[in-house]
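User: Can you help me understand a structure? I only have the sequence.
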Amino acid sequence: MLTHEIALEWIDRWDRQQEGYLPDREARFTALIDAVEALGRPDPVVIDLGCGPGSLSARLLERLPGATVIAVDADPLLLALGRAAYPGLRFVSADLRTGGWTRALGLDRPADAAVSTTALHWISPEELQETYAELAGVLRPGGVLLNGDHMDSSSPALARLEHAVHQRETDRVFADRRPEDWRAWWEAIAADPAFADLNEERTTAGASHNGSESHLVEHHVGALTKAGFGEIGTLWQRGNNRLLCAVRG
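Assistant: Let's start by predicting it. Here is the structure, written out as tokens:
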């Protein structure tokens, strides 16, 4: 039985290992939620794409308690953690690469925003265009996509500098001790007998994602443009860690 307390403990450990790659993770969360709040609705409908265990969704609902936040992921283990930890959130199991995934959202009106952090880079550029096109169909005109992730410039010189800025900040923050990394977190939860069934389920479902297929800004800008989004630009950035915003036309 996955309890609320145990789920929170694992999610806290998840957050710590994520911060090892993003020492300014909370600052990016804050900028993203600021942008959702700036849309001006006290009750926005927000879709969290690739939500993991719900770290961003929980922060959104804490800041905007009138919001409807729909957290979407394909990983059964991370969804189970989120459901146990955050009963006020709605979690949906769906693969963003599969056509028709928006039907599972159960929307009763167009969404005001779609958000994502450190999740969409594993989708190939070709699949990303289809994901964004389907998303555009459920966002209201003027609705936004806010995607926080490591996204590199296509210019080699700029990309090198962006990586250098990010790496120097990481080295400063974690000069004394490096946090647990992504692989170690997954190895630890795989070794816990309490998660045996969920680990087997995620293996069967092929829910593990590795790599960064869509790691360039231009991958996302091109896919968003073809999907019918208009204005596209970076709202916040530190090195190659950026918050990309696209407005649905």
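Now, to help you interpret it: Strands lie at 45-49, 68-73, 90-93, 111-117, 139-150, 229-238, 241-248. The longest strand covers residues 139-150. Let me know which part you'd like to focus on.
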